[in-house]
Amino acid sequence: MIKLQDITKTYKKNGDMQVEVLRGVSLEIQKGEFVALRAPSGMGKSTLMNIIGCLDRPTSGRYLLDDVGVETLSDNELSRIRNRKIGFVFQAFNLLPKTTALENVELPLIYSAAKTDLRAKAKAALEAVGLGERMDHVPSELSGGQQQRVAIARALVNDPDIILADEPTGNLDSNASGEVLEIFRELNRKGTTIVLVTHEQEIAAEARRIIKMKDGKVISDERRDN
Question: In the chain, which ranges are E strands?
Answer without folding.
Answer: 2-13, 17-29, 34-38, 60-65, 68-69, 86-90, 162-166, 193-198, 209-214, 217-223
